[in-house]
Amino acid sequence: MTTAAVLTAAGSGRRLGAAGPKALVPLAGEPLVLHAARRLAASGVVVSVVVTVPPGGEAPFASVLPAELDGVPVRLVAGGASRQASVAAGLAVLGPDVDVVLVHDAARALAGPGLVRAVEAEVRAGRAAVVPGLPVTDTLKRVGRPQVAPGTTTVHGAAGGPVPGPAGAPPAWPVLATVDRGELRAVQTPQGFDRALLDRAHAAAAHLAGDEATALTDDAGLVEALGAEVWVVPGEERAMKVTTAHDLAVARLLLDEGDQ
Ligand code: CTP
Ligand code: MG
What we know:
Blueprint: E1 2-8, E2 26-27, E3 30-31, H1 32-42, E4 48-53, H2 58-64, E5 68-69, E6 72-78, H3 83-92, E7 98-105, H4 113-124, E8 129-135, E9 140-143, E10 155-156, E11 162-163, E12 175-179, E13 185-187, E14 191-194, H5 195-205, H6 210-215, H7 219-225, E15 231-234, H8 245-256
Parallel strand pairs: 1-4, 1-7, 4-6, 8-15
Antiparallel strand pairs: 2-3, 5-6, 7-14, 8-13, 8-14, 9-12, 10-11
Bound molecules: cytidine-5'-triphosphate and magnesium ion (MG).
């Protein structure tokens, strides 16, 4: 009965716009991936951390990540073209003794050891898929297809999003409904799973590629697709994801406030 962590760090960080991979971007002098790995190890509940790194780009990761943190071995594996493929690559190298897996994003560098323990404990207590989540504070609307001002032509961008029509008019989306935010949660990582269930979920989704794979942004979604139950436990503000330069500034602020 052992718990291992797969720490995803193989993304490029396009939206952050740094020179290299996002996971190597420093926060208070330490790369995001090291912050995340340290906190996983400090939880005391994981026996190993497998870090997915950009294929062919292992060297800088090997130089910032020690082979062991708090006595917990840290291994690097080459990730894949999508986050899902990277997690699958991490799962593939876990030993047969591992029966619980925590999947965590290096981009959520400040998720604390207490959150890691809480998620792991819930899985050990018998819930086979557990994710941390926070209530949503914005007012949320469901919208329809984007439209441009009358007299111009609707044009859709490559990613399916709107771009201005020929006259340069900004797009607008018709509101279909106001969503009851009371029943929504913004989910985070680490996400914890019974290992056999997560293996099955990844095997069932392994054929997905391109946009379909990109659209699956978390592992719980794969488990849901199997029809299995997923549970939410309280998340943490500091488990926020660093996606943009603004998020990095927020993470810096959280550290300055003493949120170690
Ligand atoms: N990730 C990964 N392998 C990929 C893509 C993403 O391991 N092929 C990891 C990232 O390193 C990150 C986590 O998945 O820790 C969440 O992804 P995201 O925040 O989208 O990071 P990036 O894909 O790097 O950023 P962007 O989408 O802006 O390029
Ligand atoms: Mg991404």
